[in-house]
């Protein structure tokens, strides 16, 4: 999870992380005895989610990213981190499909929480409100 605040995950990376997390949880919780046949079987993903009460890895990554976004919003336009993460590069971009940017992920997370139409930089100035948004993203259900 080191450095996950600034990365933008692809669908393939999300799927691989989900598979890894479920594999680890299956090793931790072990198998389950079937009531009908009496044989041991692997736990289904829904059963793993019910047993594991902590937020999954995506909620942790999203909440870390949102926490970092609030910090960047409070830095100010003169700082290098702010200019790199929020700034618009000059020049032509290549003709390939563009990847989703870090700022786009912040906006998507805000829409899921219900703060979609607002400017995240202005919202990040109020620490208490931003902390509530980060906690809402952390507790959001992700399939």
Terminal CA distance? 20 Å
Q: Report the radius of gyration as a whole number of Å.
A: 19 Å
Give the topology string: H per helix, E per strand. HEEHHHHHH
Mean pLDDT score, rounded?
82
The biggest beta sheet reads:
2 strands, antiparallel
Estimated helix fraction? 55-70%
| Structural class label | mainly alpha
Instruction: Describe the global form.
Output: elongated
Name the poorly predicted regions: none
User: Could you tell me the strand content as a percent range?
Assistant: under 5%
Q: How many helices?
A: 7
As for the number of domains, it is: 2
Cross-sheet strand order for the largest sheet: 1-2
Number of strands: 2
Q: Can you describe what's shown?
A:
A hairpin with a 6-residue loop joins strand 1 (32-33) and strand 2 (40-41). The protein is elongated. The mean pLDDT is 82. The chain is mainly α and 143 residues long. The protein is built from 7 helices and 2 strands, in the order H-E-E-H-H-H-H-H-H. The longest helix is centred in the N-terminal third of the chain and has 19 residues, at 11-29. The chain folds into 2 domains: 11-53, no CATH class; 55-91 and 99-143, no CATH class.
């Amino acid at each position: 999870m080191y450095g996950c605040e600034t990365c933008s995950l692809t669908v393939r990376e999300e799927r691989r992380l989900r598979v890894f997390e479920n594999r680890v949880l299956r090793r931790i919780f072990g198998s389950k005895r079937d009531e009908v046949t009496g044989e041991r079987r692997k736990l289904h993903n829904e059963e793993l989610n019910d047993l594991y009460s902590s937020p999954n890895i995506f909620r942790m990554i999203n909440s870390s990213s949102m926490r970092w976004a609030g910090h960047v919003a409070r830095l100010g336009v003169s700082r290098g981190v702010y200019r790199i993460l929020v700034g618009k590069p000059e020049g032509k971009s290549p003709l390939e499909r563009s990847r989703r940017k870090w700022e786009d992920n912040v906006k998507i997370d805000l829409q899921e929480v219900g703060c979609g139409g607002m400017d995240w930089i202005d919202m990040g100035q109020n620490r208490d409100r931003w902390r509530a948004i980060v906690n809402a993203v952390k507790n959001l259900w992700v399939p």
